[in-house]
Design goal:
Glutathione S-transferase Yfyf (Class Pi), Chain A, domain 2, 2 domains, four-stranded mixed beta sheet, Glutaredoxin
Length: 209
């Protein structure tokens, strides 16, 4: 049995981490979790006290939060090239944009989706400033080329690409040519497509009883 165990559900940020597992090419076990009581059992709350997915167990190590899981795995398997090595200037871009998506972008999208008004004079109190400023910064970043860290695909591209893809699909992130091109580049990766097939197959199986 693999010492990598992913707890997930297809209708969650677990899809991001599932894509990451496929990029690694390492043996792993998937534990499919239903929403509701299954995520609130004492056994699962011992893994993630928030009662949410995704969560990763790697031997005795437990990691939650999709951005943290992606970063942890990239760091654990440096030979896969999914994170620039220490000392490489591209490592700064990796952390910058992955956590930009996990912080300002996530917050800006949530505020927009909930239709929470943010007075212009209060923007400085928020980590993202404004929805428009957040998207403008990200658009500039992805317009430079297919990768955020120079000439290589990393977990930062995976995480940012997944957020943009889901956001545009559900209308919480407006479609822009730079966003659509960036997502198309990375969703075409074999690992992204494999993770999608795995998740869709599980949903189809559940629907079929």
């Amino acid at each position: 049995m693999s010492d990598l165990v992913l707890y997930t559900h297809p209708h969650s940020r677990g899809r991001i981490t599932h894509w990451m597992m496929e990029e690694l090419g390492q043996p792993y076990q998937t534990v499919w979790m239903d929403f509701g009581p299954a995520m609130k059992t004492p056994e699962y709350l011992a893994i993630n006290p928030m009662g949410k997915v995704p969560a990763l167990r790697h031997g005795e190590v437990v990691v939650t939060e999709a951005a943290a899981i992606c970063t942890y795995l990239a760091d654990c398997f440096p030979e896969k090239g999914l994170i620039p090595p220490p000392g490489d200037p591209a490592r700064g871009s990796f952390f910058r944009w992955l956590f930009f998506a996990a912080g300002p972008l996530e917050m800006a999208v949530a505020v927009k989706a909930m239709d929470w008004p943010v007075p212009a004079e209060k923007g400085s109190f928020l980590g993202f400033g404004s929805y428009a400023a957040t998207l403008a910064a990200l658009e500039q970043a992805v317009s430079a080329g297919p990768y955020l860290c120079g000439d290589r695909f990393t977990a930062a591209d995976l995480y940012v690409g997944a957020h943009l893809g889901w956001g545009m699909m559900f209308g919480t992130i407006e479609k822009r040519p730079a966003f659509e091109a960036y997502v198309a580049w990375h969703y075409a990766r074999p690992a992204a497509q494999a993770a999608d097939r795995i998740n869709e197959a599980w949903l189809a199986q559940r629907a079929g009883g």
